[in-house]
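TASK: fixed-backbone design
INPUT:
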């Protein structure tokens, strides 16, 4: 009998379609809770689909879990993780409780999945090297912390990802402005842009509820950005892909080109985190490898599937394939690699960043060639970003109108 996977996502990330494909190709039955119009429909590999409702997600999630009774529940973005944690706190259903607990571990550790400062403390206690991090509950707390530490530093809002909610601060004035911006609910124009242009509903609830984010200050470590995509089962790591980030969408956004690396410190950190939190399924870890010492500093956890977890790079480096093989009772050591190249251009991320990028020709371009309709849908969306309805065009017209009226 095939293992049943239930993916949960609040947004239309292309990476979630790759995750679904990887599970399907590994012999799993794939189901998903997602917004209407998600690109995964173009792959035609989903058995059952449930609509994600941005303003009231909990009832729909509960219904989907009750219907599917998944072997494994997989959140695919941070909003989805928060929704599942909220559902776990509200539900009386044994099936729902068990499914969420199985995926996200001991409920006693849930704060660590959503609060950076708590996670950093737990990771440090588990023997993982982390930079100094503190929750900022007021401007005076921030000022006191900065007086004892050198600039620059980072301010990071909880519940954010992909570079959203991260600001580098160089002096006290920047720090004060950044704290005000990160802690306040998203502005209407920002929410509208995310909803209409990015087709991302993650800002809707914070906007409607006027949610104030928790902000943390973190010591800056100079070095190379790296991350790990990890699969695990009941607190034991099954497989990891460790990569160095070579290109990003922007200064703090998602990686678009990565180089596969081996790093024992990162491997050890993944094993300690999985064991400490009792995780099953997929999660990601972000690091900085310090230039001067070579020490890997763990920056944060992504308690969800991340955009490199679908890669199959052979035994020990194929998170989804290894996880599915274990669930299916197949040998994990027989997983073939899709490429022997170390440098990988992620599709469509790098193509969207720069269609003329040299990486698209010189490295392994991770295109899902077996799913042409999925590829076409991504190409079409990239071309639409250049048309008259794009956010940048709209913003330019708005500014021109304001200048004319003044």
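OUTPUT:
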């Amino acid at each position: 009998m095939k293992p049943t996977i239930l993916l949960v996502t609040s947004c239309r990330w292309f990476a979630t379609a790759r995750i679904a494909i990887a599970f399907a190709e590994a012999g799993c039955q794939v189901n998903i809770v997602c917004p209407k119009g998600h690109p995964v429909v173009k792959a035609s590999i989903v058995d059952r689909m449930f609509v994600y409702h941005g303003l009231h997600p909990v009832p729909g999630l509960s219904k989907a879990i009750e219907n599917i009774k998944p072997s494994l529940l997989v959140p695919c973005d941070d909003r989805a993780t928060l929704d599942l944690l909220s559902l776990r706190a509200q539900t009386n259903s044994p099936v729902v409780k068990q499914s969420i607990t199985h995926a996200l571990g001991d409920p006693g550790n849930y704060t660590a999945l959503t609060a950076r400062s708590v996670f950093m403390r737990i990771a440090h206690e588990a023997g993982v090297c982390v930079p100094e991090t503190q929750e900022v509950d007021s401007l005076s707390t921030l000022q006191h912390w900065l007086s004892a530490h050198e600039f620059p530093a980072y301010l990071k809002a909880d519940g954010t990802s992909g570079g959203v909610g991260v600001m580098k601060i160089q002096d006290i004035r920047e720090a004060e402005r950044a704290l005000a911006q990160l802690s306040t609910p998203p502005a209407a124009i920002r929410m509208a842009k995310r909803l209409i242009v990015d087709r991302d509903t993650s800002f809707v609830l914070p906007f409607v509820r006027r949610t104030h984010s928790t902000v943390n200050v973190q010591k800056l470590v100079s070095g190379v950005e790296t991350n790990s995509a990890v699969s695990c089962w009941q607190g034991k790591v099954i497989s990891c892909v460790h990569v160095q980030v070579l290109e990003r969408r922007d200064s703090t956004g998602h990686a678009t080109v990565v180089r596969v690396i081996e790093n024992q410190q990162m491997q050890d950190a993944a094993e300690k985190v999985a064991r400490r939190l009792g995780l099953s399924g997929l999660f990601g870890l972000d690091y900085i490898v310090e230039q001067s010492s070579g020490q890997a500093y763990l920056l944060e956890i992504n308690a969800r599937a991340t955009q490199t977890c679908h890669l199959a790079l052979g035994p020990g480096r194929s998170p989804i394939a290894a996880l599915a093989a274990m669930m299916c009772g197949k040998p994990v050591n027989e997983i073939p690699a899709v490429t022997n190249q170390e440098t990988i251009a992620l599709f469509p991320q790098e193509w969207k960043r720069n269609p003329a990028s040299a990486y698209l020709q010189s490295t392994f371009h991770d295109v899902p060639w077996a799913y042409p309709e999925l590829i076409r849908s991504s190409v079409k969306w990239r071309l639409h970003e250049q048309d008259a309805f794009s956010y940048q065009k709209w913003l330019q017209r708005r500014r021109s109108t304001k200048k004319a009226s003044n």
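COMMENT: The chain is about 40% helix and 25% strand.
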